[in-house]
Design a protein that fits this description.
The structure is a homodimer.
Chain A lengths: L4 E2 L3 E4 L7 H6 L9 E6 L18 E5 L7 H14 L6 E6 L1 H13 L11 E2 L9 E5 L13 E3 L4 E5 L7 E4 L9 H19 L6 H19 L4 H20 L5 H13 L3 H9 L7 H13 L14 H12 L2 H8 L3 H4 L2 H10 L1
Parallel strand pairs in A: 2-10, 3-4, 3-5, 5-7, 6-9, 7-10
Antiparallel strand pairs in A: 8-9
Chain lengths: ~350, ~350
């Protein structure tokens, strides 16, 4: 049985396309009273474009904090706040930000129509009802959150996505102008998420020709951006397309060892996904040799200083927790190492890997 | 204003995935009485897989003839036949075949919910109501019909697609097993449709980074298939992905001179789209120089004999008609030659081009 992939059914790509958001939303408005909920990364609060957003008097604009990765508890709080804001079901949820903000928007959309806490839906295909119509507007490129069928959340016992056919956005607006002022380091770390998606897809056992073509092109675009000499404007556009293609590729294959280990770091130390991936990837030459070499070339070329010795002071208990979280992600390890992955990636070996980071 | 691209929202890719069609359709069945309509290219009538299709007693299987390109009249006839078959609205229309069959299925789906004749909808965004849920199953790779927002039809006055947001399939099933026994020449000509989509997208003035990435990868895959040395099995899979990416690329950009001229040939002489494109492309070095050279290399490598002197015996009247049809496709010429295309592609020059074919 092959996956019946849910692809985001409507997309707009182009500089300045944020201005079309009003038109997109107006087609969804059912009556004069139902609100549209905007979830916007609070780093953008003072940006001029925020004031141009098509929010009406009865809409709700929430500036979400993504200094830490999204928690299931935060999703529950936001959903509650939306429910209390209006007794009418919102016409749309719009997420404007990086992967964290987009994931929050996707999760809130689902929690408005599915009972209980976000933590109950962490896993594969646990969501029962379609969410509220949702729009994604990325302001960082690389996570693939704009096109993925997951929303990655940290819950009480694990970091794991809500993976379902109801998770993807109904519409995305990809406006390269919005990613142009991302901090340099963050832009790189997030861009590497796309590169690592491509590598993990291409080197994985779940690969097929559909996912391969998307991953190859996504990786090519990362190379143009981080190893080539192209103007920033063009680079932003290519990075945005790379993110889309990489996200689609893993949606039809799977990520691997780097993501699994990075989830462990995030769960225990709160390490952000982009930088966490880079720290991990730098240490797993044994799985992705040439790719790690190319990654280091990009790090050098872009003059990025990777944080070091992150795990120098972790306790044994913390280390065990990281290992538990990482090894719980069976499909990721199976994709990377095949069905007998347990024999290769033992808890001891996993601990060793973490100790190096 | 950028196009808000409608992308086929569900896709399955993989060998043998035709067997999942029953599962796909069962999710759409509203009650026990509404039929599913299968439109299948009649070249497949005796294929073993036809007998495995999930058709129930009250479903309708129509073997459509695609020896000539789809006519608006044929769409009207088929729609009428479906309406007469059952007083219940079908739950789904399934098109299984090459671009012609898939286009017929898309058009019939629209004509079951929109009044009048298919000819009334030839153009851009003339369709008013969503069609019946429709599934595309390609048995040839290259046309991009599985993913495009058009259904190309020959009507009383023109060959022109029904281009609309309601035109794309709701689901596609891409099973490379189904394209493995296509006749060699046809496989090549149809594959070249994909190559030419990529070229026309890449060389066009409507290009953007999204369409560029898709077109570049689509072209790379054509090169692997027609200039490389890869096993047939792998080539089939790559060609299928190339078709998808090329189709998506032109959906976010546009085709160009080759398609415009090829439509003229088809309208007057009934030349099939795939071979027509090849005949035209071979003569338009002035627009796509290196690409035409590469195309000729593929023709030679694949030992394909292109038909020659197709226009040797056409009358002046026929020639004028070809020119009229070709030059009526303004967006294609504008994409190829820019806003002042009229000054470059005069009727006389267009006639000259046809005379060479």
């Amino acid at each position: 049985m092959y996956k019946n992939l849910r692809v985001v059914p409507q997309l707009i790509f182009g500089r300045g396309s944020l201005s079309q958001l009003g038109d997109v939303l107006s087609r969804r408005c059912t009556d004069a009273g139902s609100p549209v909920i905007f979830l916007i990364d609070d780093v953008h609060e003072e940006k001029p474009w925020v004031r141009t957003l098509p929010a009406r008097a009865h809409d709700l604009m929430i500036f979400v904090n993504c200094d830490v990765e999204p928690k299931t508890r935060y999703v529950d709080e936001l959903s509650q706040r939306v429910k209390q804001f209006s007794n009418r079901r919102p016409d749309a949820i719009v997420g404007i930000g990086g992967g964290s903000t987009m994931d929050l928007a996707k999760a809130v959309s689902l929690l408005l129509t599915n009972p209980g806490s976000a933590a109950e839906y962490q896993g594969w295909d646990l969501v029962k009802y379609p969410g509220i119509y949702k729009v994604g507007v990325p302001t960082l490129a690389g996570t693939g959150a704009e096109v993925s069928r997951t929303t990655v959340l940290t819950g009480p016992v694990r970091k794991l996505g809500i993976n379902s056919d109801f998770t993807p956005f109904d519409q995305i607006v990809m406006d390269p102008d919005l990613i142009s002022d991302a901090p340099r380091d963050q832009r790189f770390f997030t861009g590497m998420d796309s590169y690592i998606h491509a590598v993990e897809s291409l080197r994985g056992t779940y690969l097929n020709e559909f996912a391969r073509a998307l991953a190859e092109k996504s990786r090519d675009l990362c190379r143009e951006v981080f190893l080539g000499n192209i103007p920033d404007r063009e680079a932003d556009e290519k990075l945005m397309v790379s993110s889309y293609l990489g996200g689609l590729s893993i949606a039809y294959s799977q990520v691997g060892a780097c993501h699994a280990l990075s989830y462990g770091l995030a769960f225990v130390l709160g390490t952000r996904h982009g930088v966490g991936n880079c720290l991990v990837f730098d240490q797993i030459e044994e799985f992705y040799k040439e790719d790690v070499h190319e990654f280091r070339e990009m790090v050098a070329r872009q003059k990025i200083a990777l944080p070091r010795n992150l795990c120098a002071k972790v306790t044994d208990e913390q280390l065990n927790e990281m290992v538990r979280v990482a090894l719980s992600l069976h499909p990721l390890w199976e994709n990377c190492l095949g069905p007998r992955w347990c024999e290769i990636m033992t808890p001891e070996r996993c601990r060793e890997l973490y100790r190096r980071m």
